[in-house]
Structures are given as structure tokens and as C-alpha cells.
Amino acid sequence: MDELLIVSTGGTIDKVYFDDKSDYQVGEPQIGNILRELGVVFRFTVIPALRKDSLHINDDDRAMLRTLIAAQPHRHVLITHGTDSMVETAKVLADLDDKTIVLTGALNPARFRGSDAEFNVGCAVGAVQSLPPGVYIAMNGRVWDPRKVRKNVAANRFEAIG
Predict the structure, then answer these.
(1) Which domains, ranges and CATH numbers included, belong to the chain?
(2) Average pLDDT over residues 21-49
């Protein structure tokens, strides 16, 4: 891997505590801080494409992400994304067959103690370096085909379908 392109879209991984009413806002991308704290030895570039909860990402946003990623020379792409619509975004990117693209996120904000963010990012970094070109989702310690996974909202985890 020459250099990892990271595209951040917001989501829970980037949420920050906002006020005493338990309100959260999508903050600055956390992925760069996570990777620096972990001491990675590869080069990476972070493009903050969106700062949205994934429930608010729409078809226009997905088309913009697809165009943005297609225009980049990088073959390895990691996308931080909210978990609620991660699968839909992955499907829009599926025909970018000259790149290995892995989407990941967190079920708890990265700034929170005990967040799954670092684990998911680590899994995604390993996946993006070792998988053949295609689009994947790395969550809950597994790498998923976006056509065969869904988020189980009640159980707060990803699971196989079909």
C-alpha cells in the first residue's frame, strides 16, 4: 500500500458531546488522531467529505462520494461512515472495481472510553491492505460483503443476511 486515502463522512465515530441535554454533534474527523495515537507506519491522507449523521446522507451525497473517490489516484480507500446507512453507501461504490474500499464506523463515539472505534479502524486498515479490489464493510470484528449484511438496530450490530 503506497498511501491510504481516508474519506470521512461523519457518523457516530466523529460525534462529540455537545451539551447537558445529551445532545451530540458531528465533530472533526477522528480517524487521523486514532491512527497517529496507534503509531501506524504507513502514509495516509484524510479528506473530510461530509460531516453528517448517516441517517442524513442522501443520494446526492453518495454520488458526490463516488465521484470524489473515483477521481483519486489511490487504490486503497478507507471510509469512515455512520452505521445506519453504511450499507447503502457501499452499494453505490460497488462498481469502482479498480480500488479496494473499506467502510467502517463506530457504534459509540471515538472520544468515549470503551468505544469500538479503534478496533473497527484497525480491522478496516488490515482489510484494505489485504483484500482484492472491491467494496467491503469492516464492523464488529468481521469484514462483510455489503450485499450480504445489514445493521441489526435492535441488537446494535451488523449481521449476515440471506
Answers:
(1) 4-160 (3.40.50.1170)
(2) 86
